[in-house]
């Protein structure tokens, strides 16, 4: 086994959902980060309730011995001029650099349906034209250089309801971007929700995987999403996603592959659910125990 160093983080989306404000709208930032620390995590990603003032945020996180590992950034490379995207991206990177993060996760949202509550996620998924693929890949290479100049690594977050969802689309993205500038944010849950094998992507693109999201899928809810033509957000509200160990994804080979190949970086539990149905602290503690029992971390 190669030497590895894994740090464990959790995303605030299990407490408050930025895309669905009604989920966890009553849960304050302080409760969210306190419960993250109580559950045994040392890092987190960023939600809309987090203080924008970096000094305030550092103080709040420091009291709980938490650090920022990443924050989502929406690109619109297929629908906006590149210069506009880069301006916002550079500001985002400055924030992450100030907070001590080393990773920035991006996802192309031009023509995305992930935020449309009445559009079936499987039936209406967007597909890039060749021109759009060129815009996305060339733009990501340029943004990757911007991130690099600011001490960050750009990772691409494949996502349900977007133009880069399937394993074939992930393959095309990786094959069409600079491996020195664009990495992959591997998300077990989104690949499983898409109906494909997370291990295949993990093994094929391991050298490009610079950030990991651990998320499980309830197979019976995924089947309902197809049958009832749920949107992505309807799937979230109805519990398609859950914490590692609570669904159909087999995490033991995922953990073994990452450890055997010497992965160094963050594993992030990211399991968006309705906190009224899935108590965030309880599920965070269950996820932490599962990772300890299954991966020894």
TrEMBL record:
For whether the record's keyword set contains Lyase, the answer is yes
One Pfam family, short name please?
A: AP_endonuc_2
Gene Ontology MF: a single term = manganese ion binding
Q: What UniProt keywords are attached to this protein's entry? A: Cobalt, Isomerase, Lyase, Manganese
Give any single GO term for biological process. Answer: inositol catabolic process
Which intervals hold domain Xylose isomerase-like TIM barrel?
36-286
What PANTHER family does the entry give?
A: HYDROXYPYRUVATE ISOMERASE, INOSOSE DEHYDRATASE
What name does UniProt use for this protein?
Sugar phosphate isomerase/epimerase
Organism in which the protein naturally occurs? Sphaerochaeta pleomorpha (strain ATCC BAA-1885 / DSM 22778 / Grapes)
């Amino acid at each position: 086994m190669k030497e590895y160093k894994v740090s464990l983080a959790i995303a605030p989306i299990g407490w408050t959902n930025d895309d669905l404000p009604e989920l966890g709208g009553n849960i304050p930032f302080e409760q969210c980060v306190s419960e993250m620390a109580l559950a045994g995590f040392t890092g987190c990603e960023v939600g809309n309730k987090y203080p924008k003032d970096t000094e305030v945020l550092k103080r709040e996180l420091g009291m709980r011995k938490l650090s920022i590992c990443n924050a989502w950034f929406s690109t619109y490379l297929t629908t906006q001029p590149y210069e506009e995207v880069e301006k916002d991206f550079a500001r985002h990177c400055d924030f992450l650099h100030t907070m001590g993060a080393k990773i920035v996760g991006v996802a192309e949202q031009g023509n995305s349906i992930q935020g449309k509550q009445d559009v079936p996620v499987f039936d209406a998924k967007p597909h890039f034209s060749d021109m759009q693929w060129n815009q996305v890949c060339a733009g990501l290479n340029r943004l990757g250089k911007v991130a690099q100049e600011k001490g960050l690594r750009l990772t691409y977050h494949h996502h349900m309801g977007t133009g880069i969802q399937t394993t074939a689309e992930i393959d095309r993205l990786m094959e069409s971007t600079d491996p020195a500038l664009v990495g992959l944010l591997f998300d077990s849950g989104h690949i499983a929700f898409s109906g494909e094998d997370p291990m295949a992507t993990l093994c094929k693109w391991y050298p490009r995987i610079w950030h990991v999201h651990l998320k499980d899928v309830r197979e019976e809810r995924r089947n309902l999403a197809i049958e009832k033509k749920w949107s992505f957000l309807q799937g979230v509200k109805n519990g398609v996603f859950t914490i590692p160990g609570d669904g159909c994804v087999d995490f033991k080979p995922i953990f073994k592959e990452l450890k055997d190949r010497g992965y160094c970086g963050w594993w992030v539990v990211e399991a968006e659910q309705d906190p009224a149905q899935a108590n965030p602290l309880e599920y965070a503690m269950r996820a932490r125990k599962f990772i300890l029992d299954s991966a020894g971390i």
